[in-house]
Write a structure and sequence with these properties.
The structure is a single chain. By secondary structure, the chain is an alpha+beta fold. It is built from four helices and eleven strands. It has an eleven-stranded antiparallel sheet with strand order 4-3-2-1-11-10-9-8-7-6-5.
């Protein structure tokens, strides 16, 4: 009996010691290539979106234009949402661009493959540059971003478009993980890559 207990403890220790596997370089390269390549990723850009923060997609929408340089900066008018409002969604925008996958400080690990709808999706868990860790799922066939699981929400992406050589998901629906109920809908109406920060805005 003691030997069985000892074996069980050893098995649990070994299992706990085995972490997730690092993301293969080939997988990362294919994922980035699917949207146009690493050099085409959006780093500084304007974003015009229609946002509904409601379970009803037909509820009143807000149309807004913001300037994004995730994860450090996100301007709504003259308000810098990261430093002034501590807005965590800047990390979701960063992940949406896939640039989070190219940061040398990001730790990328393979997550278990899942089904989203009737389609297979592979997962990449990102940590160290985002807290808590975030898991991004990509369609097995197209290699395009399908879902992000982060904190207490799931974010489902669809309706892919292209701007200046980069593909991006123009629609997203956010769901509460515990209830499975939607709580926001966003549609990207326009994206514009910027070469420099517009006049009047400052990095703090």
């Amino acid at each position: 009996m003691n030997e069985m207990k000892a074996s069980l403890v050893l098995l649990l220790f070994v299992t706990a010691s085995v972490g997730a596997e690092p993301v293969p370089k080939e997988t990362l390269a294919e994922t980035l290539k699917a949207v146009g390549g690493e050099d085409k990723l959006l780093k500084l850009f304007s974003l015009k979106e229609k946002l509904v923060v409601n379970a009803d997609p037909n509820a009143k929408a807000t149309v807004r234009t913001t300037i994004c340089e995730p994860p450090k900066y996100w301007w709504l008018g003259k308000t810098e949402r990261v430093s002034e409002q501590k807005e965590p969604a800047t990390f979701l925008v960063w992940a949406w661009t896939l640039a989070i996958l190219t940061d040398p400080k990001s730790k990328l690990e393979t997550a278990a493959e899942i089904k989203i709808g009737d389609r297979a999706a592979y997962g990449i868990t990102v940590s160290e540059t985002v807290t808590p860790a975030m898991t991004m799922y990509f369609d097995r066939e197209t290699k395009l971003l399908t879902r992000i699981d982060w904190r207490t929400d799931q974010h489902l992406f669809s309706d892919w478009k292209e701007h200046d050589g980069v593909k991006y998901a123009s629609k997203c629906v956010g769901y509460k993980t515990k209830t499975g109920k939607p709580w926001y809908y966003t549609e990207i109406l326009n994206v514009e890559r910027l070469k420099e920060l517009p006049q009047g805005l400052m990095r703090k």
